[in-house]
């Protein structure tokens, strides 16, 4: 039937006619009503009030119920936190690549094979895989500050141990030092997205993440540039070679110690007030509800994230492999060009730094994560193919150009993968998702470096590079299959319209939804 205002009296009864159905009475339940008219006295002013919105708390994230009370603020300290982290990440990356870029010199000094020198790079990847789970657990349980202190402290310790490894028979000491630095890396690589999310606002989070990743890339760039300059190939004078190596090691130790002290004074877990709505929602949730094990399970149940894990691992593993084996690739075609090999590596990484920043700014403005990821992936594949087939043209200028193009896209992909992972896994911990991405990158890096290194030794650089091209092509296919669901962005831009009435059905038969209110005092017809 219908409910209508009585036309005779503004305060008269409202008549419900032709009602012979089951009605719901609070605290009583459903009850059959007899035939005949029913008179209900109702003040028409009550009809003028809008129906309250339904209780949406069941569908909200923890803390979203108090959305009006969420306060956000940006602090200048965020730039100091980002700068200190980026710098000690830089030193750690420098220590990773400082051996590989002058492989032939360290082979001669320590009298070991190229595979042994390759393992000074591969150990970074091997150490990361088993340690990533305790490291991300520590980040989630103890916070950003404790994790940063461990990373910076171990980085400094490893640098000082290297100072004791200067001697032709002390290769095992330098390997021990490199293992310590590789453990430090576990507490470094997963932090860019955490620092960006916890300290930076929604319009700058991707740029901040790209800047944090840039610090690591800059370390690789300096690792390509400085070692060939500081340790020239003096094969006839081992004492001079050892002296040059010690200068490099002591300089690294001094800088890393200074950065450890700055970490103590600068880096905090989080600002007093969150920088974004997404962080405010998470920070008001009860801490006891968080389960690290459940978070890991949720991530592995997330199919888009699994696809991203594999595709990110392929791309980043390829970058690790190319960086590690660059000296062997270039020296094969250009003997005696150790210095230019370092400059080519510098070109590759510096171009990638520009790619990282530009991609971060682009993501902050457009939020087109999947499209950007796919385009960068395709262009990285093209760059790798061009680099592969121009390597033997006996023209170093061409190599500089193709390495720059390859680096711009391949290295520029790194922060995109981090931020895309955070978006599709929100509200899971950024440290956990980033840690898993890095773990897969290390696994692929180990596999690619060892296989490509063997192919390069046995058949030449062309075979090794073609091996990488095939895998990057597979990564393009996997990236295209990722479903883009930007959950964090959705929370940041959400706007709850609290004055809107959402139609709901009573727990009765569908026929009951035919009852309508028709009154001149109602602005529109509302279903019950």
Short description:
This protein has 528 residues and is mainly alpha-helical. It has helices spanning 44-47, 77-97, 103-110, 114-142, 144-163, 171-186, 191-199, 205-230, 238-266, 277-283, 292-301, 303-333, 338-366, 369-390, 396-410, 413-425, 430-459, 461-480, 487-493; strands at residues 2-4, 14-16, 22-25, 29-32, 38-40, 516-518.
Explain what you see:
The chain has 528 residues and is mainly α. It has 2 domains: 74-277, MFS general substrate transporter like domains (Growth Hormone, Chain: A, Up-down Bundle); 291-492, MFS general substrate transporter like domains (Growth Hormone, Chain: A, Up-down Bundle), CATH 1.20.1250.20. It contains 19 helices and 6 strands. The protein has helices spanning 44-47, 77-97, 103-110, 114-142, 144-163, 171-186, 191-199, 205-230, 238-266, 277-283, 292-301, 303-333, 338-366, 369-390, 396-410, 413-425, 430-459, 461-480, 487-493; strands at 2-4, 14-16, 22-25, 29-32, 38-40, 516-518. The strands form 2 sheets. Strands 5-2-1-6 form a 4-stranded mixed beta sheet, with no helix packed on it. A two-stranded antiparallel ribbon has the order 3-4. The longest helix has 31 residues, at 303-333. It is globular and about 70 Å long. The two termini are 13 Å apart. 46% of the residues are buried.
